[in-house]
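A reminder before we start the practical. When you read a complex entry, don't treat the lines as separate problems. The point of joint prediction is that each chain is placed relative to the others, so the output describes one connected object in space. Small molecules and nucleic acid strands, if listed, are placed in the same frame. In the example below there are two entries. Take a minute to note the order of the lines before looking further.
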Amino acid sequence: MSDLLPWQADTWAGLMARARDERLPHALLLTGAEGIGKRDFATRLAEALLCLRPREDGDACGECQACGLLAAGSHPDLRLVAPPEDKKVIPIDTIRAAGEFFALTSQYNGRQVAIIHPAEAMNPAAANALLKTLEEPTPGALLMLVCSQPSRLLPTIRSRCQRVAFALPEPAQALAWLRQRLPGDVDAEALLALAEGAPLAALRLNEEGGLAARQSLSRQWAGLLEGREDPLAVAAQWKPWGLTRSLQWLNSWVTDLIRLKSAGPDAAISNKDLGAQLQNIAQRLDLRALYAFLDQLTEYGRLAANNLNEQLALEDLMIAWRRSAARR
Amino acid sequence: MKFSIQRESILKPLQTITGVVERRQTLPVLSNLLLSVGNEGLSMTTTDLEVEMVARVSLEGAEAGDITLPARKLVDICKALPEGAQIDIVYDEEKERATIKSGRSRFNLTTLPVSEFPNIEEVKGVFEFEVPQKVLKQLIDKTAFAMAQQDVRYYLNGLLLEVDSGMIRTVATDGHRLAVCEHEANVSPGEKIQVILPRKGVMELARLLSEGDEPVKVMVGNNHLSVVLEEYSFTSKLIDGKFPDYQRVIPRDSDKDVTADHELLRQALVRTSILSNEKYRGIRLRLQDGLIQAQANNPEMEEAEEEIEVQYTGPRLEIGFNVSYLLEALNVIDTPNVKLALGDANSSCVMRPEGQSACTYVIMPMRL
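Here is the predicted structure of the whole assembly.
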């Protein structure tokens, strides 16, 4: 069983108290930024609810048959719903299968739990099929929708779930947690900034070598403006990081550039470690070009939910970025 | 764990219980079967999280223990060994592997921890009764065909088992037709018990039961239904829902009673159905004194007509049906004559075997 993340302690205690009083709703919508431990929380709650001999405080015992099956991933009363391998969307069949799962009785202690992650990945047909399950819950059923962009869910789904919102942890708390898990020579602060304050995302980023990659990517990105780099080659460098993350980083850089441009060199920016470089770029571009590029990023962010060719998208962005220099 | 067994004594039980093991498994442990050797002998368990099957075989001079083994591979190995072969199965705890030896053959199989195997330890909230095996089999065979398939009304995708005082009853419906069958039994629950057995469980149970007279023990729990035979146990989850009030569907005011020769009617309908619309399977019946005219046509404007002699006197009636529904009900009736009760063209037809009130079939008409 995973440890409780320190910034989730209050939420956990609240839900445990409600579980003790048998006052848990049939559906929870766990929302909050990516990488702050929502799914871990959901899994932990599922384990606590399905355990056959929960401890005093409501936590799973980790020893009973149910806990053993949960650890092995073969518990019959827990269903994890996610997009099929290599797919981004949860199709209707997966949701219908989950409905059938709830239609049958529970195997062990009368409870059945399904975790849908990420819930915003359900396509419209799947989301509508889920409504049926949400509307007529069977006794003992708990559905947890884990979602970082609740605005992309159907309003009818949102209104049928009780919302549990996870805020970003306090930077001090997040840093303390992060430092315990990082080797001493890693700049935890920069990493956390890069992950936009989400500690789990920061940890993952470190494993993937995010900080170093960002340095080189930002150098190349700046080089594009000077005509030193080939946009297609730069796009190829971005590709392994995926479109979503690329957009996130570009977004944060461009936002910083806009800040520098509007408020002068002393503006508070989030990518402090790249300050000099950004300063440099800011001098080369005008505000209009920056906003135009930001608009383009937002548009691709919207399109990314569909089946987008990531390589083409990145190449287009890099070419557009190179052109912004010329626009002056 | 260590035991040896004759090929024939393990093969049949193995084949019987591996039916529930699905070929494509998301959870690796579900493609395994649980072997446990204890004082009572060998017990083998398979599950697909919906249905669990246990087979028991007696053993002599075995060493106790529990392991899980790939089910299909074990069956294939046992099947491929020569007849009458002696099979030795030994588990090496250190390497976590099992060895199967027989004559000069030797197989080394991977195992998975027993703790990962989701078997049902006990069925809770139990009402128990015993019935002869063939009664239960009959009750299922006579009604199961009418179950719905993948209907969104999930409570229809199964068979209702009802235990009333002195009576057990099975009911299945897909919303277009209904089958009810009951049998007297020595049961007296405090109040009527209703559970819905899911489709897959019904199929597996029907496969397991035979026409014998031996009693089987049926245990109805809150979440499970268990049927215990001498060498096998069957446990299935239930469908968590409320079955519709089927009594209200059976028409009571049908005024046109027809008696037909079962085989004659069935064969005539089979022939007529050939030229019915492949999708809707519509057939038109014209009832008049002593005669039913059956007529069907398809989009190619081909037409089939049959006349069937029946015992009937009364007003004429023209009514349409899905011929598959009529035939499926006729297929499970085994009396020489069958009784039909009809009202008007918009009311359902009630079909019963002549001289028996145990089974009732209700079929909704179709507008042609």
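Discuss with your neighbour: The first helix of chain B runs from residue 7 to 17. What might explain this?
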